Input
Amino acid sequence: MVQVALVQVAAVAVKSLRNGAKMKSTNFGVLIAVLAAIFLTGDAISAAESITTKDYWVLRDGYSEAFTHDATVTVSYESCEPCVDVVDGFFVNYPGPSGQALKYDEDGNLIYYWAEYGPDWVYVPDSPQQFLPNVMEIGQSYTCGWLRNEYVNGMFRGYGSDSFSFTVSGPHTTTVGAGTFTTYILYMFDSWSTSYGESGTSTRIYYLAKGVGWVKMMINGETYELLGYSAGPPATPNLTLTTSGTTASMSWSAQENAGGYTLFYDLYPWDVLQNIDMGSQTNASFQLCEGSAFRVAVQAYNSFGNSDYSNTEYFVIGYSLSVVPSSPSISVGKTGSCTLYGGTCPYSAVSSNTSVATASVGDGALLITGVSAGSATITVSDSNSGSVTVAVTVAPLLNVNPTSLSLSAGATGTCAISGGMRPYTAASSDTAVATVSVGDGALLITGVSAGSATITVTDSDSNSMTVAVTVVPPLDVSETSLSLSIGATGTCTISGGTTPYTAASSDTAVATVSVSGDTLTVTGVSAGSATITVTDSDSGSVTVSTTVAPLLKVNPTRLSLIAGGTGTSCAISGGVSPYTAASSDTAVATVSTSGSLLTVTGVSAGSATITVTDSDSGSVTVSITVDPSLSVSPTSLSVSVDDTGTSTISGGVTPYSANSGDTSVATVSVSGDTLTVIGVSAGSATVTVRESGSASKTVSVTVVAP
Output
């Protein structure tokens, strides 16, 4: 697994080198010289400009240190309740009556939760605060500060504040009772104020060793020196490395108390340090790719931390002549370059077909110029008889057809793309007018709104062509629905879209259609419905819903009315509503319409013609005869019992009818225009005379005893 990991990284290294700056053999020699210089100077892999806080401010559960003056530093991981909230973290007891609750966050920053001073006082900031950053640069100043809640014997006392500043110096060599250590000095200055109104400053100086922590401390005027600690990281191993061909073999010295070893490696130009956990192994071999350039070092580790880095070893595995890319494509008239790697300078190049492509070598690169469409093989040779071939394809000039396009808003048109070098890209000069995308050898242009735009097509070799696009408004008709009668015509105006226009009826037995310029003419054939579809030359379409109504009719077509009588109705059907009506002689008869109902009222005796017209100009007539109004004379009769009396009826519409209001007083009969009343018994009765048109008159009858 380890070997595979490093081989994969080596492959990445080769790719990184080949895709970087152009490198001739002389450049490669410069790299060798640089590495040789590093070998001689023994440059360490670690950076001396900064320290990682976690390595020096040690937070390990159960860790303890013994100092002079019977002082100790202890670290314990626990849940603590500093008056306000429960914190799971590390509590560090320092010499003197003080301690802090601390924890590293996921980025390695040291977070401050709370502190105690003496047996009674607890200081808690409003929220956890960053105390130290994850990395501290030597000589750099750092500051932090916060308001703190102060508690005495668990009771809130008030608010105070802390303002810290830190500076790191080093490295130093520090000798104490526990031994000699490489240390960095952390100077800590605290400007504080309390809820009692007191304020002041305090200074603490910590000598910190990697993996050990506090080696020497100066607190409140007292100096504490380390006498011993519970455990520490292993000693630094020594690394040995050899190479043979493409194999790198390395081994390192085993260290007492080492739990395992970490192999660190970095790729030229030393950008990102990576590592492999080697477990308990003390040697490894890796099969690497040509062109690999590494530096490596080893650390030993145990539960208490890591050793320092071992000596750093650098190595490079050369590579044979190669050309990248090995099968380039270029356009006619363009020059492309390939990078040359390995081999021995100087290089030379020759084309198998100079009518297709020519080749030359310059500044570590193979330069190829396209002459005409086709294929050619370029052979590159070095001065050590090494050679490699490059297959070149020269593409024809970029072409787009057509180069101008007119389409409707919402419609999509296509142009064929050929030649040039794929992939193609395209851009619109005005996406509010037209948008564009590239499909499989085609340019897809979609109209957005009326206007003009220029589409620019570019291939991967920076060749370009343009397409002039005109977008017209979307196809539209002035009417989306028509109602007409059989034999009648209706028209709509067509606008937008792309001329010429065509139109078709879904049912020519109901309606036919024709187009002349921008005028759509629809003719009703028979009652029913049909859909008229209008299409422009860009395949845009709109529809017109057409309803053809039956012929206009009125029932009945003749009426006889009584002058002054109530209106008489006729039913209107067919045609296209709404309907209107007019009388030829309003002195004889008047007319009104309500929906499909025609009402005619007689005014005076005579004749008139009522004309009914629909909204499609269809019309029918109704013949009207108005008779005089009903009249009876005399309107009162006096007769004896068993005697008769008569009145004459005129006007109205014959035949006439009559009835007695009280047949026990008088009975009645009608013959032609004569009303006959017969007395039955003494008394009074009312006789009602009616004509066929429903008009009526009354006659008062008095019957006397004989």
